[in-house]
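Protein modeling request. Please complete all fields; requests missing the sequence field cannot be processed.
Requester role: graduate student
Desired output: 3D structure, C-alpha cell encoding
Chains: 1
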Amino acid sequence: MKWLMALIVIAGLLLAGCPQPPEPTGVETTTPPPELYDKTWISPAKVEVGNFYPGARAEYTISLHNGSAEPAEFSVSYRVSDNITDSYEPAPAAAQDWVIIADPAPALAAKETREVLIAVEMPEDTQAPPKWEFWIVAKDVTQTGMVQTELACRWLVTMK
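Delivered output (160 residues):
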C-alpha cells in the first residue's frame, strides 16, 4: 500500500511539471508601430493568391488604420490596376463581380485600426488569364481639398 501511495504521489508530481497548453486569448487587435500611429495606412501592400481555379474562393483580411485625430469614414472597393506587375495581366472584366468586401464603408474612430475581410470567389464556368491582377483600394471619404489620397493593396492571382 505504501508503494501504491508513493507511486501516486510521484506520478502527480511528474504530471504537475508537464507544460500546460496556453489559455485561449481574445481576438488580437492590430497595433501599428509608433512611427505609423499618426498616419493613415492599409496593410498588406500585396496579397498573392496561388493555385486559384474556377469555382475556388480565396479570403484575406486587410488592415486599415485611421491615423487622423478625428473619426473618418472610408470606402473600400475593387479597382482596375493602374500599372500591372511584370508577367501579370489585368483582371478579367467580370472579376469585379467575383470580389466580395465584407465592410465596404467602415467608419473608424481616431487612431483606430480595423480588419476588413476580402474574398475572391470565381464562378465555375469562368476563365481567366494564367496570372492576373487587381487592386483593393481604401479612400477616406471625409477628406476635403483638391488632393485626396487613395491607398491600394495589390492582389496578384496565379491560376492553377
